[in-house]
Amino acid sequence: MSEPETDAEGTDEAVSSPTPGSNIAGASGPESGPLIEEPIIQSKDISVFYGDEQALQEITMDIPEKQVTALIGPSGCGKSTFLRCVNRMNDLITSARVEGELYFGGKNVYDDDVDPVALRRKIGMVFQQPNPFPKSIRDNVAYGLDIQEFDGDVDARVEEALKGAALWDEVKDQLDESGLELSGGQQQRLCIARAIAPDPEVVLMDEPASALDPVATSQIEDLIADISEEYTVIIVTHNMQQAARISDKTGVFLTGGELVEFDDTQKIFENPDHQRVEDYITGKFG
Amino acid sequence: MPRNEYQSQLADLRADVLDMSETVAERLEMALEALETGDADLAQQVIDGDDEINQQYLDLEKQCTDLIALQQPVAGDLRFIAASFKIITDLERIADLATNLGEYATDGETNIFPEIDIQELGDVTLEMLADAMAAYAEDDSQQCYAVDERDDHLDDLCEIASDTVVRELIESDELDADEDIETFMEDVSRFLLTIRDIERIGDHSVNIAARALYMIDNNDELIY
């Protein structure tokens, strides 16, 4: 595994930089790390504690850019906890404490100068239950743009995001209707449109299809494949076949918050190195 | 252990494939004995029994496709099922070749070249088949390589046997009547086909060992 390159020279202003992970530091902080093509995210010995209980054990993992990385494992193994480390959602849990380093585009997101809100603009998130706001379809998608005081053509960006989420054709004539009136699958695609509208670099998905029927699930899976051409996707799923179908890399977390194996998805599902992983994915354990 | 029903189905598949291999080995042994003794009844039992083996094959094929469709096997389980799927095809082909040997035994003289020990060749194939199936049953990768090496020895024996037949044919001066020649040529042709079929049984045993090695170690080195 390559070391994060944090010691290269920065520049004075990150806003215009195309560097992955740029512009996540607060206004007074130093510039983010240097340009690296991949991995876009490097976790180095990340541990998470909830009070005295350790939920993640020194997770080290390189996540490649513009690919789908799936995190699988039994309930309580820490995969969602890891996901929340990536965009510092764990900051919102008062008992949570994070140790280690997590680099996004070469910048440690846990540095003091990183603004979590700016970070989350670069790393969007989609949750298990579709959670559109009680607003119109257009306002749902534009929500993130409003937050970041986007001064471009909002309607064009909304259309682009809805097209990116494969929802445009179904809702283009009802943009002013409530997002809550859509079906479950449409609501989840609306949430994906909302997540990609601010043009993030990474989209985190925490079991995005587990509440959907098979048709809506397959639409979300197709969509994940499509958006991975533009964005890095990290998805937590309980559905191992889903991980096998849609991901390029798979990380297997097992009980105790341990990342036991991380490799190409094909390798994991055809010939994993670890017997515990083999036992888990073949159903002998877990 | 979770997925008890699934684990039970995997165990059943392994047991049923081994059961099929025992039937096939038994038929091969009977066919070789029929070739040696000229026992037409024994040969006919082999010929008549081929339908039973074909049915075993079809039943096992369905077991494999059902497991893939309904259980979505992965990793070692997937390799086991994929290997089993291929192995039953080779077993079915060996049974077809054993049927051929049975037919040769009923068609006429099988001992026209006494200096060629068909039983020795047959015994090698029986051992190769048994070793290949033992590798599958016991996850023994070394046994797979041993079967592959043994096939070279069998090929040599078969080549020597075929060369001997051709040499005998060229040097033969005992035939004078046309009908003797015709009968002799049929016997020779059958004898050469016997050697060829035995050599092919060896090849199918290597195929089984190759699939077993893939199953055990995810190693495709012996596949072609």
Structural description of this entry:
The complex is a heterodimer of chains A (286) and B (224). With 286 residues, chain A is of the alpha/beta class. Chain A has helices at residues 79-86, 116-122, 137-147, 154-164, 168-171, 184-196, 214-227, 240-246, 265-270, 275-281; strands spanning 41-50, 53-63, 68-72, 96-104, 107-108, 123-126, 202-206, 232-236, 249-254, 258-264. Chain A has 10 helices and 10 strands. Chain A is globular and about 55 Å long. Chain B is mostly helical. Chain B has a single domain (3-217), classed as Phosphate transport system protein phou homolog 2, domain 2 (Methane Monooxygenase Hydroxylase, Chain G, domain 1). Chain B is built from 7 helices and no strands. Chain B is elongated and about 75 Å long. The model of chain B has no long low-confidence stretch (mean pLDDT 92). The chains are: A alpha/beta (286), B mainly alpha (224). At the A-B interface, helix 8 and helix 9 of A face helix 4 of B.
Portion in strands of chain A: 15-25%
Uncertain spans of chain A, ≥5 residues at pLDDT below 50?
1-18, 27-36
Structural class of chain A: alpha/beta
> Largest sheet of chain A at a glance?
6 strands, mixed
Please provide a brief summary of the model.
Chain B: One of its GO terms (biological process) is phosphate ion transport. The complex is a heterodimer of chains A (286) and B (224). By secondary structure, chain A is α/β, with parallel strands linked by helices.
Task: Please specify the SSE layout and strand pairing.
The complex is a heterodimer of chains A (286) and B (224).
Chain A: E1 41-50, E2 53-63, E3 68-72, H1 79-86, E4 96-104, E5 107-108, H2 116-122, E6 123-126, H3 137-147, H4 154-164, H5 168-171, H6 184-196, E7 202-206, H7 214-227, E8 232-236, H8 240-246, E9 249-254, E10 258-264, H9 265-270, H10 275-281
Parallel strand pairs in A: 3-8, 3-9, 6-7, 7-8
Antiparallel strand pairs in A: 1-2, 1-4, 4-5, 9-10
Helix pairs in contact in A: 3-4, 3-6, 4-6, 6-7
Chain B: H1 4-37, H2 40-48, H3 50-71, H4 75-107, H5 118-138, H6 141-171, H7 178-217
Helix pairs in contact in B: 1-2, 1-3, 1-4, 1-5, 2-4, 3-4, 4-7, 5-6, 5-7, 6-7
